[in-house]
Amino acid sequence: MIEPNHANDSVQAELNQIAAEWIDNHELPEKVTNSDIVERSKELHDQYEPHIQTYTNNTSLSQAEAEIRALRKLIGEDRTGLSWEAITLLLSRDETPFKDAAESVDEYTTTAVGEFHSQVESKVEQAKQLVIEESLPGAEDRLKSPAITVLDWEAKRRLRASANSSEQTEAAVVSRLVDETETKRSFREFCEQYLDERGRDNITQLAVDERSLREGLLIKVHAAPSETVPEVVDETDIITIADREYDFKVVEDPYGPSWFKTISIYDGTDFQPEEARFDVAIRTARRAVLELQEQDGQTA
Questions:
Q1: Are 38 and 93 in contact (CB under 8 A)?
Q2: Sign of the torsion angle spanned by Cα atoms 289, 295, 298, 300
Q3: How many helices (H) and strands (E) does the chain have?
Q4: Does residue 205 sit in helix, strand or coil?
Q5: Residue 127's closest CA among 252, 224, 260?
Q6: What pLDDT digit, counting tens, does each position of 136-170 carry?
């Protein structure tokens, strides 16, 4: 029978502690039985089953892929997720309720389990990228296929009246007026304000998709569901990184964190000093943009 060290430990935290001792020689700690592990495994399966069914019913993920993603992504009430060692321990039990995932790994090691999970995450990210491309096409593509806008007579008159002497087209007037009214924020300022308004305790991870640094910025927030959107999202029109301006989109996902092609700006599961990690992450994003500028023949 398991004797928990902390009354408020989640099942995830408890299993992480046990698995850390088990992983070296595959022997359970004293006073921990196989039945204890199976019992905790079934408890987790009951918690995760709705999410697993959502994955299999609404996506192309198989049962095994859905199980391994749930095991790694979902967190307990104390915001603790399962370690690779704990997932390996659960899958190694003959009576594990996560049978499909267990049968899909070559061996019960953290390396094999991690490789299977990486394959699943790659599949998920490819699907997400397809959605992103359809919902937020690149600026270059938008310029190649401009939208036609019809203005009534009064709107055209007001635009012409607002024109400067150097502005020869209505498009030039519109561009200047938009520039004058849009709100620009640095990436650092936006992230700090978002974290303040949303509440750091409610956020598991705030990150930026590396691939979006070329076009429209995709900011991913893994957090508990919320009915309200931080005001900074609605009050910001443009985000700047290294003097480069971005349209942006914020996507919230309760299942995280995610590390695939991602620059993590805030990690609520990392207990090292936040300020230092935040500064490093912001600098990492800036360097990535500068490298892209160099590749594109631009100057910083």
A1: yes
A2: positive
A3: 12, 7
A4: strand
A5: 260
A6: 555 445 445 555 566 666 777 776 777 777 777 77
